[in-house]
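The data are set out underneath:

___
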Amino acid sequence: KTQKLSKLSEYASHHKHVLKTGCAPIDTLLTGGIRTEEITEITGQSSSGKTQFCLSVAAKLVLESQVRVAYIDSTNSFNPFRFKEICMSRLSARSNISESVKQNMLTKAMNRLTLIRAYDVQTLTKALTSNFPFKIDNENDNQTPFRLLVIDSITAIISPVLGGSTNTTNNAGHIAMMRITRLIRETSIRLGCAVLVTNSTVGNITQGDGVKPALGLTWTYVPSVRLFLERLQVNVYENKKANEVSEYGSASVYRAYITKTPRRVDAGTTASPFCVTAAGVT
């Protein structure tokens, strides 16, 4: 057992990847991007840009990094038209390639994403333990590597088993939560992928009118990295593409705080603004 653990640690140290999100300010907060074999939590209130961030990162990876992504949607928030729009907007900026090549790139990118609907713990468990689409790729074969698992949102899946209680009095609920979080961790290590989860917020009674991530104290130890997003203002038009035919044609301005990370000593005090446009999070 010790030998196996040693080999696993050695493998992990040589096979971790840093995945850029496509948003330079957030990549700076994350000291490069999101890491494989880690759970990164995106938290914030409603309309703070959590789903837009996930769609944007997924689009960036399947289109530009050309890796596979699995997107687990638990709230019917995944919009395939919006995802396609992000990809098309990014392709349109490439003036050095023909329209036929762009269309071919778009088709291949869309095929690299697998969408899974999971509305409860049982369905999520089945998805994580199945061989599809989480097939481990041999480094010597020609298959496209699998790099990102998105769960949007983890709150909708876990909250029902907690029964509205985030303290340890609900033993059965917390046992179920820890089982699913352990399975998520094991999946990220087994497949060498990054895990991106969204979480809602609840009122923080101890800090007045502040907010904190949902799912209670036990959950706070699960993610390795936590980003808190908030919306600042709406309809701040971009100079070059103010009139894009899209509800995201104008830029909405947000701010991201990094509140938990093992790589920065200033977590909780550092923030960066970002925008949501037709091309996703920028």
